[in-house]
Amino acid sequence: MRRSTPSPYCGWHQSMPEVAIRYDDSAAYERFMGRWSRAVAPVFLDWLAPPMAASWLEVGCGTGICTGLIAERCSPFSIVAVDSSQAQIAHARGLPVGTRADFRVADALALPFPDAAFDVVVSALLINFVQAPAVAVSEMRRVSRAGGVVAGYVWDFAAERSPSWPMRTGMRKFGMDTPEIPGRSITGLAALRGLFERTGLSEIETRSIEVTQSFTDFDDFWQAQTPGYMPTTRMIGALADDERQKLKDIVRAEIPPSPGGGIEYSVRAHAIKGCVPRIRVA
């Protein structure tokens, strides 16, 4: 484990707790990630420019944000959306899109579908978080028809440009270890391209997507940034009140007030798309 430099703000070192991210609190996930997902997904889908009346599979659908936008913007013939979290699927089924999409619990590393079953297979904010990203992309390719599209996007964790960057930067300045982001090294554009190329996809394209979100004040930001399922939240919860306040002051300095009031900051996602060759590559 990496040891942190002693903080000028406190004379202790807090080791990292269990780093697993739990996705069993859909409301907290919505509060933290929902606004960012709603900002990125439309840009991604417009860039994807999918065919109309296509059969879709979304892998790692979470609370159904991207699924709903697919239904609204892409004129799909059908949508199947899967996630490993029963809680997330239950939440998604309760959305208006729940009447248009077939939500199922499934493992991204072993998709329960036959070969060549879908025209478009996408994943939003998933690929780096699975245990074996290459297997996940291979499965997405397997269930795509020849000539079909496989695509997705991830936060640019490699350059520390995810929605959690102000919090993680502040924690490090405070002298706390921050949990390693799973699959951080594959979130750069070159790494994503290599992953898709090794899976046998062709006509690969990538792009960056920058989005900005505003918060009414720092408390609004802090509440969104500290969902119970995040390991960083559990670390912050272990701080004494005065230490937590010092951390807040450091984080606040990372995102100064915006001219119109409140605070705002920008993040970056990396998107990728490729085609399944019409002549299958073994």
List the helices and strands and how they pair.
Blueprint lengths: L25 H23 L6 E5 L5 H9 L4 E6 L2 H8 L7 E5 L12 E7 L8 H10 L1 E12 L9 H10 L14 H10 L3 E14 L2 H8 L5 H7 L3 H14 L8 E13 L7
Parallel strand pairs: 1-2, 1-4, 2-3, 4-5
Antiparallel strand pairs: 5-7, 6-7
Describe this protein's structure.
By secondary structure, the chain is an alpha/beta fold. The chain has a domain at 26-162 and 181-214 and 266-275: Rossmann fold (3-Layer(aba) Sandwich). It is 35% helix and 22% strand. It is built from nine helices and seven strands, in the order H-E-H-E-H-E-E-H-E-H-H-E-H-H-H-E. The chain has helices at 26-48, 65-73, 86-93, 133-142, 165-174, 189-198, 218-225, 231-237, 241-254; strands spanning 55-59, 78-83, 101-105, 118-124, 144-155, 202-215, 263-275. A seven-stranded mixed β-sheet has the order 3-2-1-4-5-7-6, with helices on both faces. Strand 1 (55-59), helix 2 (65-73) and strand 2 form a beta-alpha-beta unit. Helix 1 (26-48) packs parallel to helix 2 and helix 5 (165-174) packs across helix 9 (241-254). The protein is globular and about 60 Å long.
